[in-house]
Amino acid sequence: MKRYINDSTIEDGEKGNLNFLSYPSFMYTLPTPHNSAKLGEISETVLMPGDPLRAKFIAEKFLTDVKCFTSVRNMLGFTGLYKNKRISIMGSGMGIPSIGIYSYELYKFYGVENIIRIGSAGAINSNIKLRDIVIAMGACTDSNFMSQYNLGGTFAPIADFELLKKAYDFSSELNINTHVGNVCSSDVFYSEPDSLKKWDKMGVLAVEMEAAGLYANAARLNKKALCILTISDCPLNGLSLTSDERQTSFCNMVEIALNTGINI
After folding, report:
1. pTM to 2 decimals?
2. Active-site residues: which are they?
3. N or C: fewer beta carbons within 10 Å in the chain?
4. Per-residue pLDDT, 29
5. Number of neighbouring beta carbons within 10 Å of residue 190
6. Rounded CA separation 147/251 (Å)
7. Positions in the chain whose pLDDT score sits under 50
8. What is the predicted pLDDT for the residue at 132?
9. Strand pairing of 77-82 and 64-70?
10. C-alpha dist (Å) from residue 113 to 6, 44, 219
11. Contact 153/221 with Cβ under 8 angstroms?
């Protein structure tokens, strides 16, 4: 049975926006075209790895009383308990367009307040090593995602400070080598050879593909977001982790995210 989102969820400024009103009617119903969850099946805090199979792995390894709330398009989502506190995990897919859809629907239609992206990244800064953790304080991007807002300037997507501080404090307690700063959310995986060096000159720590879109959605909808990354490769020197090494190293990132998520 579909649940229609009433007018109270539409901001006053949006009621007069013809572009907003011209969206298809399914934009205001549950379940959405991309998520079969019912209202109440998803926690207020969601961890989002890019890979839906990683979401399944995390749910099975770290959570108890796990229930799958969606498998639409094989983008798996789970809700369970971590240290007896409720939390959800759902894949986001790759790139800003994909996380843009899933995070928007979670925030707008499912009552989610906090999303923590967890994923891999390539180090740009020479001081960052394989297996290090990078927490994205801000997210530069080569994407055109922000143009939808018709701003008279350049929007700077940033993390929620409360989430960031909790994550950094917890990583410090675990003595995990953690860096905080700017990342680049790129639309291009196979980029031109010198492009990353230019971002390095601006102090950008690492490159990934989703944080800027997540942070923009959170800002637009007055929600909270954070991106925690494990360095899986160093594109400028050719170093990278094996698949087995990635699995082990990513567990540190997951523990940071889970403990941040249940202590908001």
Report:
1. 0.90
2. 233
3. N
4. 78
5. 4
6. 36
7. 1-23, 25-26
8. 96
9. antiparallel
10. 19, 5, 11
11. no
